[in-house]
Specification:
- There is one protein chain.
- The chain is mainly alpha-helical.
- The protein has one domain.
- Helix content is 55%, strand content 4%.
- The protein has helices at residues 2-10, 32-45, 59-70, 73-84, 86-94, 103-118, 126-144, 147-153; strands at 21-24, 29-31.
- A two-stranded antiparallel sheet has the order 1-2.
- β1 and β2 (29-31) form a beta hairpin.
- α3 (59-70) packs across α7.
- The longest helix is centred in the C-terminal third of the chain and has 19 residues, at 126-144.
- 22% of the residues are buried.
Length: 179
């Protein structure tokens, strides 16, 4: 009787699903597949080149935290529904899963979604489009405010130049847009 009672108490805590939660936030439980998809999506939005891309800076973590903390409940619901329907939406646009598309095909499909947002197709793909727009916004925000950009690429200075004097801007130097 004790063994039966103990097993009944422990049974709900057993998880038999294949995919495990890899990132637990306040309102989101991010599965490992969703985390990999988000990393590929932000890497597509800001790819590697002369500078480090969003994927190598782990901007996807910033996107998750901002979506969890800063979006209202309706936007979070739309974000999650768009995330869950993202791969199916990409299959409709490109014929393959997003992870199996080349970089050029990914960019082409995301551009088509941007055009859909401006056309009459918006209601059909509304959550998918909102998901991509929110992800794009937080990706750019996180990338431009990352330590890499703020210290190495465009160093941020709290007070540019010396106080009380004018300084001419040299076009050959990178300046921080936030300064």
């Amino acid at each position: 009787m004790g063994i039966l009672t103990g097993s009944i108490v422990l049974f709900p805590s057993c998880d038999f699903s294949e995919e495990k939660v890899s990132l637990a936030l306040g309102k989101f439980n991010v599965m490992s597949g969703e985390e990999a998809l988000m990393k590929e999506l932000v890497s597509c939005m800001i790819p590697e080149g002369d500078f480090s891309g969003a994927g190598s800076l782990n901007i996807q973590d910033f996107v998750w935290v901002m979506a969890d903390d800063c979006l209202d409940e309706a936007s979070q619901t739309s974000f999650l529904e768009g995330l869950h329907g993202f791969d199916d939406g990409m299959k409709k646009l490109g014929g393959k899963s997003f992870l199996k598309l080349t970089q050029e095909e990914r960019v082409k499909n995301l551009s088509r979604l941007e055009l859909d947002a401006e056309s009459d197709l918006m209601p059909e793909n509304e959550n998918l489009i909102k998901f991509v727009q929110i992800t794009k916004y937080f990706t750019i925000l996180g990338y431009m405010n990352s330590e890499y950009i703020m210290t190495g690429v465009m160093p941020y200075s709290l007070v540019p130049g010396s106080y009380g004097t004018c300084e001419s801007i040299d076009n050959s130097k990178r300046i921080n847009i936030n300064a």
